[in-house]
Amino acid sequence: MNLIKEKLEIHPFLIAVHRGSSMGNIVENTIPAFHAAVQSKADMLEIDLIRSTDGKFYIFHDGNENRLLGQDHNIKTMGSTEIDALNYRNNIGHSVNFKVEKLENVLNTFKGNILINLDRSWEYWETLLPFLDQFDMEDQILLKSPVQKSYLDILNAHPVKYSYMPIIKKLPEIEEAEAYQNINLVAMEIIAEDVESPFFQDKTIKSIKDKGLFIWINAIKLDEEIILFAKFDDDASIIKGPEHGWQKLIEKGADIIQTDWPNHLNNYRQKLKLTK
Questions:
Q1: pTM for the structure as a whole
Q2: What pLDDT, on a 0 to 100 scale, did the predictor assign at position 103?
Q3: Is residue 170 classed exposed, middle or buried when 0-12, 13-18 and 19+ CB atoms within 10 A define those classes?
Q4: Distance between CA 133 and CA 270 in Å, rounded?
Q5: Beta-bridge partners for 259
Q6: Smallest Cα–Cα separation from 160: which of 141, 143, 190, 138?
Q7: CA separation, residue 90 to residues 25, 40, 66, 199 (Å)
Q8: What is the pLDDT of residues 196-250, one digit of tens each?
Q9: What domains are defined for the chain?
Q10: Which PANTHER family does the entry link to (predicted)?
Q11: Which residues are 48's β-sheet partners?
């Protein structure tokens, strides 16, 4: 059975934790942050991937080098020896004894029952997919990407059929993703900038779910400009109340909600279970 489906038989929706749970001395996208997320009742870890110039895979969201590592060079321009020499900064900017995690260490640590969403990995699929095969974690790994032919062709041709979720921003992208017969399409991540977006409409969401696909909706708030689901987000849920954020995502049919606040969202999920 698909692991997402298996977990949805237990929960009304799944909780995906954005970069793990970081606070204090625990830094995002590290094994301690992923442990914290699991302890906060995460069903899925959302992690970011980069590849060094000599072909090693690491967990990091490039563009955050100054904030997290105290240096200005893009990590994707570095070799593995240079990356291994870096130390993280914690949440108050102090250098700590945490290193940028190697993908293999993260996969070996969390092999088992936790789902793992590999974000920002698509530009490496030609070498990443064969690398992933050695871990025998096909049931746990969920790949995602924008709907782009170059990415989907690689995924379509790869013999191991990892679960896949396209990032859908335009209606024609649904059919583009569905056109590939050898991709294990299991879900769609939908982006709605406002309530007028087609992806905020019940009809659109139902048409996707009627195909047996799961719906991923983002509650995370990255900044004031990027709106992922019509401002029904983590901030609104915490500041105003869950009915102003998470509840709307649930009403819209979210099977997976990505959040930065798994403890709070899980507490709300438990309350919903009790009221049924």
A1: 0.97
A2: 98
A3: exposed
A4: 36
A5: 17
A6: 138
A7: 5, 20, 12, 37
A8: 999 999 999 999 999 999 999 999 999 999 999 999 999 999 999 999 999 999 9
A9: 3-62+104-275 (3.20.20.190)
A10: GLYCEROPHOSPHODIESTER PHOSPHODIESTERASE (PTHR46211:SF14), GLYCEROPHOSPHORYL DIESTER PHOSPHODIESTERASE (PTHR46211)
A11: 119
What would you measure as the largest C-alpha separation in the chain, in angstroms?
54
**Average pLDDT score over residue span 147-151:** 98
Q: Which residue has the tokens 């992933």?
A: 132
Q: Is the pLDDT of residue 150 over 60?
A: yes
DSSP the chain: --HHHHHHTTSSSEEEEETS--BTTBPTTSHHHHHHHHHTT-SEEEEEEEE-TTS-EEE--TT-HHHHHS--S-GGGS-HHHHHT---B-TTS-B-S--PEEHHHHHHHSTTT-EEEEES-GGGHHHHHHHHHTT--TTTEEEEEES-HHHHHHHHH-SS--EEEEEE-STHHHHHHHT-TTSEE-EEEE-BSSTTSGGGSHHHHHHHHTTT-EEEEE-----SS--SBTT-SHHHHHHT-GGGTHHHHHHTT-SEEEES-HHHHHHHHHHHHHH-
